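Model the whole thing, not chain by chain.
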Amino acid sequence: MPVYLDATDADFEAQFTALLSAKREDAPDVDEAVAAIIADVQARGDAAVIELTERFDRLRLTPQTLRYTEAEVDTLIALVPDEERAALELAAERIRAYHARQMPADESWTDEAGATLGWRWTPVSAAGLYVPGGLASYPSSVLMNAIPAKVAGVPRLAITVPTPDGQANPLVLLAARLSGVDEIYRIGGAQAIAALAYGTESIAPVDKITGPGNAFVAAAKRRVFGKVGIDMIAGPSEILVIADADNNPDWIALDLLSQAEHDESAQSILITDSPEFARAVDASVSRYLETLERRQIAGASWRDNGAIITVPDLSTAAALSNRVAPEHLELCLADADGLSQKITHAGAIFLGAWTPEAIGDYVGGPNHVLPTARSARFSSGLNVMEFLKRTTLARMTPAALRAIGPAAEVLARSESLEAHGLSVTARLKHLNE
Amino acid sequence: MPVYLDATDADFEAQFTALLSAKREDAPDVDEAVAAIIADVQARGDAAVIELTERFDRLRLTPQTLRYTEAEVDTLIALVPDEERAALELAAERIRAYHARQMPADESWTDEAGATLGWRWTPVSAAGLYVPGGLASYPSSVLMNAIPAKVAGVPRLAITVPTPDGQANPLVLLAARLSGVDEIYRIGGAQAIAALAYGTESIAPVDKITGPGNAFVAAAKRRVFGKVGIDMIAGPSEILVIADADNNPDWIALDLLSQAEHDESAQSILITDSPEFARAVDASVSRYLETLERRQIAGASWRDNGAIITVPDLSTAAALSNRVAPEHLELCLADADGLSQKITHAGAIFLGAWTPEAIGDYVGGPNHVLPTARSARFSSGLNVMEFLKRTTLARMTPAALRAIGPAAEVLARSESLEAHGLSVTARLKHLNE
């Protein structure tokens, strides 16, 4: 049974704060092991990657078989049934269309001092995408990571996807093909992150690494950060649903369960202004938990991390949601747009009862890689900006330097940086000669 | 004497690679000490911050004096001479105008399936800016960090600036006032970062921390990352100047020295197609190093990390520059704009001989907080985006769900996520009833 909170209870604040600060992730400390793996790959390159892949994935590779050939990819993706291929193609197309609108524009202007200012966006030269193997090998995540990189114009995009015991997922390879991925390596774990960051004889290094992974992958990404860029370190998934009584309790129950089934550490929260509706949703969740394939996982998540909060009014719901800063927020309300104006922190918002969160996982268009663990307070979901950087531009004319140079001289002096000031003074002196 | 490289030498590639991989930073490992400080502040709040400030800054504070009062700020900034005030005001105005153009737009559109998609930008609720004390207490850095936060709309902006032995820098306080900073605390070090991240009785926690600092501050920022957002961890400053023979060697020498004088670990590189010009610049640097106030620092930097590279042509210069991915790049060439089109990685570009890098440090408008240590390959300088996050929006209609829902059902099944699929199926079933 999930925890029930009532916003009008005297001790609500204490209970809600406890809910917010509950630690759901229990990642093992693998940092030492990961440091050793990274050092090994740095020192021995391919040989280390091959040995570690044999040890962890029970797969014997050579420098020649680290990477899939195009023919191997062709053979595997030919196994994908038409229905799944069509669904992936629709998803890819919609994700591409959404992310294409995120491309920022270069700017250049001349101001009243005569200075020409602006900036230019350029993509990273090479990006690496980590794709988990086994159970959590999701083709949709390949699309969500790879398409923004290609929309950004990244010329070289490599993915690593482990194939434990040689088991490949043809859908993952098809998703990579549809996204325009350039290189696919059959490696995983911290050794894959190290190979992407530092390079080996057979794998050229990249400048940016994104993608989800287990504790080893997360620790490796933290360690290579600085040498390369990384995306966020994702925690367990979360959903918060704000729903009034005019909803079908089964729909809301399934939306809550679609997060709960990801992971026992996942969290599903319902906020509603109707205690009756809250009980109806809870009852529906219980019924689905009798038959759901992943009922063990979903049941543990709902029991240990689930919460149902009743509120006197919907603007209290918005205020509580902002404190949660949920990864996914569903607003199943008549005036979903109105309430969404009050939302200041959320990774993604799903508006209205016809927008189940699962649509956003696959075919909506927006990215499903979103900030977890309350980090929507300060970060965004994956987007094309992750693969771009801004170079600022400035050009002075003699007149512009005459106008603003003296202020730079004064400030350089005040900061005791003499050469800074002299570099301006020397030029101004020339103008006055 | 700096290292001289000639791009036409047989062993140039080896020498250039060595230059690229030379480790300039020698930060002490203070991670354990920092972990203890953070734990102490988490456990004891104000009391810990006050004790640590007494120990490190020889300054006795109380919970009431941690924060400057408005009257104290008024008194201190009244000490700033008019000339410096006017220079700071001009800088603030130009930085604000530049960053205002970086504000991204919200978007919303309805696609052919009938889905309404888009995103909305919101600022972080509270940001903290670390300002170093003592020698490296730069008012210009306050402007460069605080103004983008305020342009982004951050409602609460706090700064921490240590005052060793009670020594405050009135210019820093004036810069904070001009930038619209809301709270100023007289604390520093890892304890200030911990207080901003976790909060104390007197200091409310923030969601994002930016700003430069020493090894303790950098280690503390790394540790609180995840709990809050942080900006990059800056390394020693760098400049790369590409200049042809039609330049005044003294101007270029001063531009190189204006990085070298920051720090012995700073790096200044000249790339030119003229060996004669290279020697003239080197000679000029030597002359300035006889008299420059910070000649010890600048001399050590130039001797240990400086480099002069001669190239057969300017497009070789651009290619080498892209491998360096410099923080600052000056193009002192007749066709600076043309060559800048070949630059793929640089934090900031200064175009033409009338644009000394020092202009960008103070009054140009673009930010002077820029990616160091080759990280311009994958990251940007500080900008308003650092203080904003994007919430994606999606709204389906029954018709839109009918159009794209079935693909989501197929993909959910292929990923063995049954509840995901059922949340769509339940709604589609209702439509077909």
